[in-house]
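Below is how a single chain appears once it has passed through the pipeline. First comes the sequence as given, then the structure the pipeline wrote out for it. We keep one example in the README because the format questions we get most often are answered faster by looking than by reading.
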Amino acid sequence: MAKNPLLAAAGKLAEKAKAGAKSAAKPEGEGENGSEQATKVAGSALSVLSSLPWIKWVVIIAVLLFVFLLVSGVLTGVGNAINNSSSHSCTDPNAANKFIAEAEKNGETFSESDKENASKKTGNECDTGVGYTGQTYPPTTGRITAFFNVVDALHPRGHNGTDIADQCGTPIYAFAGGEVVSMVAGTESKSTDGGYAFPAGSVRIKHTEEFSSMYLHLRASQTYVKVGDIVNAGDLIATQWSNGQSTGCHLHLEMYTNGERIDANAVLAAAGYMYSATSQFTEAMMPPKPVAGEDASTVPYTPGSAQEIALNQVRAKGWGDEEFTNCLLPLWKKESGWRVNAINPKFSPSNPPTPEYQAYGIVQAAPGLKMASAGPDWKTNPATQITWGIGYIQARYGTPCGAWEHSKSFNWY
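Resulting structure:
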């Protein structure tokens, strides 16, 4: 199953620390570290000068002092390299300039006061995503008024995101958990004719090292997060407004994988949130909000639900109810929250963020297409997903408790 993205990121940080320490201890081009080379130099000097008795002891003292100072410097360099590599900061004084330059490249215009304000509001991405759990939530209600990459009068160079429009003040929620890494305060004035009202408020959330989402055209007085905040999927972050270049209140949603824009609507659809240009995505279509920090072992059993299907399959295998209650229930809560449309775009970032290519479903089959062996309705039918998942667990771990123990040890199964 898919590994936790934070584990992978932690491993990369560890490698950076090792590389930093190695670099400090072994300057480029040397075949041995600084202390070994210093010892050889000292030995050569000592052998030459020892033939001169009248300075013998002076030379010994000087060489020992030289070696001591050199080795101390090397060790200090190693320590600094480790400290610098293992501690990282979200602060980048150039982050605001980078953000504004990118926005201007895409048609936004900023006054000098806007730029000064942005520099106080904008933060930089950290090395790892914080707060991402794999849970998702629809970002707002409304219908699509501009698709990704569409070319029209307002977007002659192609549209950078997906526009979802509803009434002014409609809530905007975090699509997934993560850290707020940039924020530009929007204006209170509105643009309604496609012109500009400065600036276009924005929030960017980093979910994993590769994946982030960005929300634009936000009203300053109704933007509820700041740089450094950790948010959960479904947390209220702002409301729809009409500033920047806009013809009416809406959410301009962008998503990125490895810094490249991707089609946000495709990601929403893969998560089961079906927005369109012809019909409204309404409050009634919103799922229950994920509970931040919920203990997987406390998930309630609901008759007639996916949990009941799984319990019946566990009993059919002769495993006993404790295998379901103590192991399978928390295992698949941890993996997907028991959601049939749970998707992990981190699993294979080089492929499209769709169920076929990413870890998907209640059991987080990686990739989801594996579950097609259990039935053609594997994307939407919990019974099909569970049948595949039970077979996978039996073949690889013997029982759900075997899979759960592995998951607790390695954070994947």
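Residues 2-35, 71-93, 120-129, 294-303 have pLDDT under 50 and may be disordered.

See the next section for the split statistics.
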